[in-house]
Design a protein that fits this description.
CATH topology: Aminopeptidase
Strand content: 25-35%
GO molecular function: acyltransferase activity
EC number: 2.3.1.-
Keywords: Acyltransferase, Transferase
Helix content: 25-40%
CATH superfamily: Gcn5-related N-acetyltransferase (GNAT)
Organism: Antrihabitans spumae
Order of helices and strands: EHHHEEHHEHEHEE
Structural class: alpha+beta
Strand order of the largest sheet: 1-2-3-4-5-7-6
Enzyme class: transferase
Number of strands: 7
CATH class: Alpha Beta
Radius of gyration: 18 Å
Length: 220
């Protein structure tokens, strides 16, 4: 169900515990479906995956809840945004896909392994369409990446003509640069970009770049 958003309410970014996400998984997935414009019912297929991710090492989640200006926000306040991620590892599907994508894109094996040796995977970041335009995406991403011990943050996002949507503008504004472009993950026909930046956030984005030994090969 879509959250009932009162224009007078103020979205507040909060940390979400594993118990919070388990208790509000249905609500969080409804935001995911609305933000991604997926057909209703998609949430049923994603629920087991989100639940499994909670147990992964380094998992962290944040969200945004609505706070009535005349009262304090509480855990029962409507959830309007959610983001989470965890420490990447070689046995994970996304890690294996990105490894293959980097090699196809022209990265050397040495550079690929170095990039993937210590990273935080930004797995999901979604703001309900009715709550967009309040800076929640940036606030959540900054909070999620604060004090991480990994060397790099990595994410994948669908390719968009001219990079002209809120997600792309956010990632570029926070210094995420190209790792792989026009990559097709197994089971999804859409082209994706894999973006990354060094951690902590105050480091210059250019320190992430690893020169390719040759011109990048076209993605397969």
């Amino acid at each position: 169900m879509d959250p009932a958003i009162n224009p007078a309410d103020t979205p507040v970014v909060v940390d979400l515990s594993a118990a919070d996400v388990r208790a509000r998984l249905r609500e969080a997935l409804a935001i995911y479906v609305a933000a991604m414009e997926y057909p209703r019912g998609t949430e049923h297929h994603r629920a087991p995956m989100w639940a499994e991710h909670i147990s992964r090492p380094g998992w962290r989640a944040v969200g945004a809840i609505l706070a009535d200006p005349n009262s304090h926000a509480n855990r029962d306040s409507p959830l309007v945004a959610v983001a989470y991620g965890y420490r990447g590892a070689p046995h994970q599907w996304w890690h294996q896909q990105v490894h293959d994508g980097m090699r196809r894109f022209g990265w050397t094996e040495e550079a690929t392994l170095a990039m993937l040796s210590s990273y935080f995977e930004l797995t999901e970041l979604h703001v309900h369409p009715a709550a967009q335009g309040h800076g929640l995406g940036e606030a959540m991403l900054r909070r999620l990446l604060d004090d991480r011990t990994e060397r790099t943050a990595l994410l994948s996002t669908p390719e968009v003509d001219g990079e002209s949507n809120r997600a792309w503008r956010l990632y570029r504004r926070l210094g995420f640069t190209d790792v792989v472009r026009q990559f097709t993950f197994t089971g999804d026909s859409r082209p994706f970009a894999v973006l990354g930046r060094p951690l902590p956030l105050h480091l210059a984005a250019r320190t992430l770049r690893t020169p390719l030994t040759t011109d990048p090969a076209p993605p397969l």
